[in-house]
Amino acid sequence: MASAAMTDEKTWLGHPRGLFVLFFVEMWERFSYYGMRALLIFYLVKHWLYADAEASIIYGAYTALVYITPVVGGYLADRYLGQRKAVQFGAVMLTIGHFLMIFEGDGGRNGPAINIFWLALAFIIVGVGFLKANISVIVGQLYPRTDLRRDPAYTIFYMGINLGGALGPIIAGYLGETYGWSYGFGAAGVGMLLGLIAFVRGRPLLLGKGEPPAPQRLAAPVAGIKLEWLIYLFGFVMVGICWWLVQNQAVVGSLLGVSGAILIGFILFTAVFKLPSVDRDRILAALFLMIMSIVFWALFEQAGSSINLFTDRRVDRHLFGAEVPASVFQSINSIYIILLAPVFAVLWTWLGRRNLEPSAPAKFGLALIQLGAGFLVLVAGVLSAGPGQLTPVIFIFLLYLLHTTGELCLSPVGLSAMNRLSPLHLASLIMGTWFFSTAAGQFAAGLIAAAIGSEGAGPERVTEVYSSAGWTAVAVGVAVIVIAPLIKRLMHLDKLSDHVVDD
User: Fold this and answer.
1) N or C: which end of the chain has fewer CB within 10 A?
2) pLDDT reported for residue 455
3) Residue 476's pLDDT band (cuts 50, 70, 90)
4) CB-based contact 348:383 (threshold 8 Å)
5) Buried b / exposed e across 441-455, counting CB within 10 Å, b at 16+?
6) Residue 212 falls in which region: left (phi positive, over 0), alpha (psi -120 to 50) or beta
7) CA 349, CA 149: separation in Å to the nearest integer?
């Protein structure tokens, strides 16, 4: 029995020790990802000399591809590799990609270094595709589906993400803006290498979770080559495809639309015609949460593009007598999560034991309301400063505070919901689709940022777009809270069982 096994396992802080292996791996992966991301929009504008609008579209296409590829990585893990091998391969690709970012060339776009830059982005995109969804699935596999520790476990895991997310911009961002781009990107590469080492050494603590579903099939030769190596070769083919796509951003938008329709169609067909009614309803509830996440991320992910540029140009960044590099402010969100995630984990557990915890859909509604409030606070700060004046830095801290509390109501809750609502044989695909919805939000975020940074746009454009974004998010959040009871009924939480988890 799964529950008996859990009782006999050695734990730390009441959780399986494997959770903390995954915590540290994800911490270093996010250190590298967010450290590089904090510099990326500035690297595009200041080093490669792209206009704001162009840079925002490239940024949006890159981050969208980062969240599309987990669908492929999740599918290959479900069918062939298993999550552990997929995570390890992804970590190798990420390490290569981050170290390739060191080669910056002389700037401009005429030399060969620009192609190395595109190649580095492609390796990172594919690496995240194999790692991101699958490491989250392994977290869920450590617990029975009805275990009350699941949501707190994902919150703890999310703290690992954000510890890396806090340290990355501070260290890589500071080094990159102060000493040179290659120093910042090199620090990100070292972080990813440490994550790879931690995962390889921590394998025994995963207790056999995430292994290939059919090892004999994975070892069988196909055209004289083991299937496992063919899958790795396919990963390098994906790098070539992403190298081209990240340079052709309009194609990424079309790809999102077409592949999104196919993916949702496949999931709906499977849910309606191949699953029992309870699983069908749960899939429909999961799809609703995914749609709401698109709205959330389209606005939240202004942080790395338009808000990053706004902070650089229109915010008084002096703290304690020194001017702080704009990229370092990308750590604020993660620092808030480190401070507030334990509070939310305790709060949800305390409310859950008293049957007072908001449902996952209601938490999504609260997330959107707080997201919108953050933009409205920033607009108020811009208006209070007056025309032509720098916005006081306190309003950036307030914006990130509200966005962080919103994120804590949505992102770890969404991860847990996807794992809980998914049939076992579709677990990684549904988790990958969750990240695909984030990809759609990321690409939309790039379009919004490009509109803000379009030629001739002035400070009033920022207040106009952010004000519209704020009120829209609040209105959608209220609507979600109203219909949350209906979505909760589709989740059939009273019928969850553990018997399908640990085969």
Assistant:
1) C
2) 47
3) very high
4) no
5) bbbbbbebbbebbee
6) beta
7) 8
